[in-house]
Amino acid sequence: MNWSFHFKIARGARMIHHRGMKIRSLLLCLFTSVFSGVTFAEEWTNADQFESSTSILRTAERGYAHGQYQMASAYVDIPGFEDHEVAFEWCRKAAEQGYKKAEALLAKMYAEGMGVAVDKATAYQWCLKAVEVDPLSDDWYNGLHDAQCLLGKLYAEGVAVAQDYEKAVEWFRAAQTQESTYILAMMYASGDGVVEDDVEAFKWIEKATEFGSSPAANYDKALMYADGEGTDQDYRRAVIYMQLAAIAGYPNAQHFLQTAEAAEWYREEAEGGVSSAQYELGRMYLKGVGVAQDDGEALKWLNLAADGEYPDKDSPVSISDGKHPEAAFLLGSMYRAGQGVVRDTRKAFLLIMGADEMGSVGAEYAIADMYLNGIGTDVNSDRAYRHLEGAANDGHVQAMHDLAWVISQGHAREYQYRPDAYKWYDIADKLGHESAKYQRDAFAKTITPHQVELGKKASSEWLAKYQKKNKK
Fold first, then answer.
1. Which domains does the chain show, CATH number per domain?
2. 303 within 8 A of 274, measured Cβ to Cβ
3. Residue-level pLDDT at 419
4. Three-class SS of residue 25?
């Protein structure tokens, strides 16, 4: 049976409205969450770590509810270890002993058909158990909020229990989870089950984003800021939240940022002197994304973003907070190619060097190429290789591949350590370079097994540090 009900929950295709209009979403299933869902596994991040923790299995097999629950949560959450049927059996054993977190997880499994046939009536009963206050239990509070949110969904849908929006709202308010606050925001925005109230909707969308990054909530918050719904109109914040949603991979946000409406958002801020908006608008004109391709407009806005000024006295904008590294990089690329300007490799070199000094990873890779080939500067292989290494360490995948090739060929005096070539080929492969795997495997045949192992170890250590850095 379908979980959908008549109020509009955000996810998937969205009807994007213009200023002054309400946020609206298409009909979607309540139980197809816009969030990743509850994460129950507490101590492990991968299957290897869990499998090495044999004490948990022993605890579970001896009948201890805590161990049984941890086994269940591991089989639900750990990548490469998922087995919902096994998880269900462990969870049921823990829940039948009154372990509150297990009761909440078991309710979720019945509601969503995880390892068992969907049974919302049974899910409802386990929810009621999970929300019961048990002063003798040391874990009842931990399962409480998830069960409260699930109860809200059940009352809103009205399948396992009579539909009751008032109770649904009560449970959603009590739950205070990211998901429950987001659902409340959508209810108040659309007027489904409650009196439509944009101010209340914005209040709840704010709460949803306070729990941490939520692409769907950031997307809706951006639309509300842009339309001035429930809050003062603020294009700067609208752009920030839309970009956050897009960076997190939310398809609707990624699509929106390629549209003419996004260009108008950027223009509002660009004309106010915000360099990041000037850069985005310049990039859109340069690529012809959301606007007609126009090198002159691209040059104007990129100049403003990079330098804080524009040489045309008739320009409507004459000030910016300036010094945007990616804008300087794009400007340099235009002068290097002669796109929209007279080709000037020396100016290109200086602009791209400035972008590199401001932190543009793409610029550092370009500078390496310019030093190597004498474009806009004298040939300087040593400097080229140092910049190549810098770009690689900053995460530029093509730079990793090229540095591996330089080392493998023995072209640079300072880069003769053969395992490093394997390391950079391996990292480039794992980060998505198309040919790095083939070249890594071919190179591995030219070095000793010990050198290969050294390269693998160095690759793993680098990737671990890189991933940790990017999570911050």
1. 14-209 (1.25.40.10), 381-472 (no CATH)
2. no
3. 92
4. strand
